[in-house]
User: Fold these one by one.
Assistant:
Number 1:
Amino acid sequence: MSDLRNILKEEYIKKERAVTPSTLVGMIEEVIGSLHGLNTKSSFLVEAPPGYAPASAEETDDSKDDNVTVIRRPTIKITELWGKTENGDRDIMEGLMNNIKGNTVKEKIEKVNEFLTDAAPPPGEGDISRIMSYLIFLDTFASIVNDYGASVSGFLFEAFLAALMGGTSVQIDDPEQVGASPGSLPIEDVQLMINQSEDADAEIVPYSLKLLRRDGTVKGSFKNLVDYFLDPAEGRKTDSIVYLIVTKDAEKLQGGKLGSWNGTLKFFEFTITRDNFLELIGAPRTVPVYDYVPQTLARSFKQSIKNQPKAVRGMPHFKMPDGNDIEVGAQIPKGTEVLRLVQTGTEDVIKGSAAKLYSPEEYKTVTGKFADVPDVDRQVFAALQDTKGYQTEQQWAIGHGVYDQGFIGQIKLEPELLKAKAEEYTQSLNTSIVKIFNALGDLSDNINRYFIGAGKDFNRKVVGQQAKEDAEILKTEVNATIT
């Protein structure tokens, strides 16, 4: 975990502004206060979140006039602290995410899609809290997916999801957090507060998160997963675990290959319990069984070895009743007694990834013990410790054919779509509210430029005057809008 923290630290440094959040807010208060005597301690500005920075949307001069097309929304500081409760960063993000309605991950996705597809309210009737929350959700999620490497994206997504679900939802990055048995690594990445229905109380549900390419395979440690279901620690909630799969969709190219990401994230869920463990983890493959059976031909046939299923490819369609071969190409008359090759049933075969986890004998033993009880408790489940997958610490695997069945929704994060929706919703807001955010963004830019200086044509006096003008706009609009 220390290596990951170092990676995160380096990523944050790359994106960090030269003026810190606390000094930036102080500068804003000082500039506005010195110019106009505004009592900022009771104003909107002291509520600006730490890490405030202008949004990455294309900068325009619209904030200076009445033709406002886009709001300069805050860029929230992406931090691992979102995954922990009772800290300032989590409080800010959870406060924003409270406006994303829904009590489950699926419901949250549905509400985000409603925001993206519904028409914006008429001018002046937009809900600033709702609009800012959804736009910041989309900005932040897109940044996590696009701006970091795979390992960092996955880690930050865990923290982001914990803040999104709120309450006692937490990211799990240490076995001690959940009282795991010594030597056992956490399978759960987060514990989320989920309310499955309006009539039920919220419950804490363990989740494992996987960010994959399209049609990617979910993999994990067989030993760690078995240990998870054997661990009686109350903090681990080990009766089940939900796998949340997020894939970066891609367009199919000629030849069946996948192209680049098309901006769509798809979400899938499946739940593993002790009872359904063998159906999902290393389940045998059901294959057809073929044999020659007696038959009287209802019409004439030509003997062939073509068009046979893969399992019996190259075998002749017919044989003589005594088992002797019939020459390929020979015409067999109607009414002839023959042996015809047909599917007679199916059988379960331990092959592929399952063959790394169990021998046929081990699988038969385990399934027998599981079948003898109505509910698989820890004592029965312990039979999996005697398998080769557990003893040699193999990886289990589940393909997209399994988790595709648990599709729960998708979110489109194409830059042009997000920009268009931001502009559409901006038109539904009170113009003064938009000007407040835009002036605050311009002011932070110009304060940075004033104290840092940049470029051969930099003029500190001009930049300082622009900061004062921004502060004047900010003061005017705050006084006009906020009472």
Note: Confidence is low (pLDDT under 50) at residues 11-25, 27-64.
Number 2:
Amino acid sequence: MGWLQGLLGRAEVDFSQNGHGPQFGVEVPFEIVQGDRLAAFSGGRISRRDALEVPAVLRSRNLIAGTLARLPIHIRDRFREENDPTGFLAQVDPDVANVVTFANTYEDLFFESVAWWKVTAFGWKSYPINAVHVPVNQVMVSAGRVYVDGMPVADDEVIRFDSPNPPLLVHAARAIRTCLLLDKTAALYADSPMPLGHFSPREGAADLDEEQIQVLLDKWEQARKQRAWGYVGAAWEAKKLQFDAEQIQLAEQRQHAVLEIARAAGVDPEDLGVSTTSRTYQNSEQRRQDLLDFTLATYVAAVEQRLSMKDVLPRGYTAKVSFDGFLRSDTKTRMQTYAIGKPIGAYTTERIRELEDEPPLTPQEQAELAPQPMETIDE
């Protein structure tokens, strides 16, 4: 039973309610993969550490959490003017850059469908002015109480974010495990200096017992790590099978597994290195908008709406993420957009210069750009 205890010891506990965090007393089924000493959950979640070992998962995480974390988030009043009465979002955690705090938050929403902040300071009218991100595995919800590192926390001291999407580590666990197993199999082939094969006793030689066979195999493995071939003695004969690693076509299977991960994460397979169709310049420009509309917007809405609730901001104030920098394209397209938007009031000169990361115009520059009065012609 030692192997079973080892498997149970690897099980991770989910810490929230409704499948979002640690639940206790839940029976988790196991299955053993033939030929592999690794045990995997059958239909259960996969650990984040194991998932991030898959490059496609890591790339999806960076694409979603990394992209959203660097976008500016502002507080607006009822007139849609930027106005932050508490200064909360200017620097959420005084010891950590906002990009890190929000990256960890979006990552938790991506993997777990839930994220947590713990309020560390209150200010104007008892609204939070500082908070720290708390990893999901440090939070437990029991009988309506929230515990952080085993200690109870008051309701007004925690901010819980919930994603409308299901947790990737649960619902994409099968695809992620497939990638892990294929990668391990490919590594096994890459580590072998000869095609797949087996050893058999030479004609007339006596068969060996299991312990003797294992000793010879260990010597073979050790010898071929130093040279391309190892010596097995006169008792055995090496025989090659009819197929090798290239004929198994693991590359195609691994590409399909990456495609499944792309579907689960909601990202374009092309962003994960899987070519599915030909691209033109025009539809390449549309990819960012598609990523925003069908993937990023869901996580943004979860954060915006939670930070706009009355326990975080006063009534009438809302949090808003700005996508201006993300959607800006090449210089020519940006200038054409400004030229169209400025006459109808969508952009001002000050706003355009802010978006282009340029300083405000000096009085002399404003005078030079001001329209000159038309000269009258004397008759």
Note: The chain has three domains: 11-193+242-327, 197-240, 329-365.
Number 3:
Amino acid sequence: MAIQKVTGEIIENNLLRSASLAFNTDLLYIDVINDRIGINTSAPGTALDVTGSARFTGDLTVQGNLDVEGQTSIIDTVNLEVEDPILLLGRNNSGSDIDLGIMMNRGAGNNNAVFYWNEGEDAFKMVTSSSADSTTAITDTAYAPLQVGKITVDQEIEITDNEIRTTTSNADLALSASGSGTVSINGMKFPTSDGTSGYHLQTDGAGNLSWVSIAGGVIGDLTISGSTISAPSNADITFDNSGTGDYIFEGTGQLTVPKGTTGQRPSAGLGIIRFNTSTGKYEGSTDGSTFVSFNTGSPGATITKDTYTTGNASTTDFTLTLDPATASNIIVYVDNVIQEPTQNYSLSGSTLALDSAPHSGARVVVMHGFD
């Protein structure tokens, strides 16, 4: 029979009830005494108690606290917006050794990306990991690369673009390796104050270093190999203190000056010092044009006399037993007549050249050892 019109009194008498109302036992149960509604339960424990799954089509606003007591919460949304400025992970953590962080699913066949706090190492780590999202200890498979604009470490070191600098005023920047390790720097630059010019060190792959300008041109081509510093052939190496400071060589070893024969002498220059292997003496230039020998022996020179009795009216060259520094360092006699340097004879190494040949039977005597 079809339901006829229901009067208002009947509706009111059924809705204003003093006893509970049940539909199909527990499909919908209205607990009038405790002001509770149950769905799929005849004993609702809260104002709305739902046993089983629930679905809301449309927005859901919870004005009180939302407490999810299940093991897994799944939010299947495109964008998740959280208003709270602080996210707390491990809310009920009792202080046990568990790792805390965020894991990102990278899809099948890929290790997940994890940013987390490693409790055992007391450090934040960015890694890839094969660990499941239910784990309490992350297993690292590899460190993940990090790309940032700037990193500040303990307010001491600052990395900006390609520059590393200290942020503490007047503080030193130290690069050091642990144990027997080394600090490896490729292409060290020494720019000038304007940053547009200067030099850097360049290696050749064999441990040798050379100075190269930032613009790319080689300057001086200074090479350091082991403990040897060398320049290109015939190039000078100049040490300039640009002031009144001294050049100080410390230690208990020795200082070795350049050495060579008389014939290997460089052009004379003021202040030159070298060892002459022909004369066995140190020599130098005090006037910028000639060389003089230094007397390093005991007081009093050892005079050597070379005597020649081979005058034949044609021979002008005579070979001396020593290699005097200059023509002024010898005394020449022809038949006991003294000869004048540069006027009557010249000297080239150990060869005495008279301007005119002595007569036959003439006696030529050369005294030297006055260097």
Note: Confidence is low (pLDDT under 50) at residues 214-220.
Number 4:
Amino acid sequence: MSKPTPLPERQLRKAIESLAASIEDPGSKLRFIQRAIEVYAEQPELLRKTSTLKPIAVRLACYGAFEELHAERKLPSTPKPREISWTLYRLRHTILALFILGVASLAYAYGPAGYRAARHGVETVARLLPSFSPTASTANRAASRDRSARQANEPPARVTKPPEKVWLVEDGPLGELWSNGLRVLTSYHISTEKRRYFVFPRDGGDPILVTEKPAGIVYHTSESDIAPFEPDATGSLLSNTRGLLRWLRQHGSYHYLIDRFGRIYRLVNESDVAYHAGKSIWADDDYYYLDLNDSFLGICFESEWKPQASDAEIVTPAQIQAAMNLTDMLRARYGISDTNSVPHGLISVNPQKMLIGHHIDWAQGFPFAALGLSDKYEVPLPSILGFGFSYDQDLLKRMRGNLWPGVDHAERELRIRSRNKGVPSAMLRTELRRVYRRHQELLENARKNGFETPAVTAGMGS
């Protein structure tokens, strides 16, 4: 775990510690500390370097971060400060309005000279104290612009329902044609090992063995060499795809790859295991799924994922259209639920450290609406809620301090469950982790024995 960001000012450290003391959740506390430091750094230098004004800058930073995170529901169950300065901060818009009214009165009373002096005073205050703006703080305005820009670039939501039936129309030497217009190139596909996996009932029942039928879909990005998507770079685009296909085929990494032009390649037969998900956890209404290589199909976009980027920057329109058709075919063919169509970043875990976010591709920005899928970023994260996983500062840093909402939803539900059971949250989390380790031990033993184990109670088949 990396060291926390050092607090640059003694006054800032004391103010942050005062407010952070009321925040019980460690992740929320860390998020508040980081945001307060960022807001303080955004204050004008004159405000931070002048000894008489520095306390104002410190309080503006702490209260601004606290208010912002509260508005975004990232400080659950945290009481509001009781200091008088917090009350004044909350009344800042009213105070600013009274100040402007006083300035206007001054200008009216003293004529042109008074007007010039008053205007200079207003401009100085606006420059030094941007957080007193009656509209929004500098940080909030920047965040709003970023969100608006991402939303403007997002592909439109799907307007048609996924087809109930999709069937194979043609199967030639180079590829397949499906009834929904899907074309699949098959010249690179290989066979690996046949799919066999356990599902773990959420009601605590015995694990169930499943063969052949995939339970869901995991979406990935290749994180490979990416050339500009421009006509002059066509040669590089094609060369990169060919190299990527050879590497993925050699390692059996995904069931499907969608290249930058929207061409779909089958790499591993759907009946076989692809090695795409590693240590991972997901759940639907009935079951928990562990180590999703065996149970979920892997679809990879040839792309490079970056935090805060819009999905339109990550993939091309052709890739989104291809992903929609491929998802429709797989869901119709195997009865895969919307719930079990999920990005890689939400399922990847580190079991040794009991941390989420081991891989974070598509941990933001996945085009759910364009594919006709529900937003999985809002789903309480099963690894936290079901097995007591957590997260650290390193993940916050890699995600630029912006985790998806399902993390907070799961943490909140875990605290509610702890209160209902009358046990400390830490004790409940420890017990959930024991359950996870028992499941992992069962899986490892079953793999060694070819899944011929007394723990198997039923077969769901295909």
Note: Residues 10-153 form one domain.
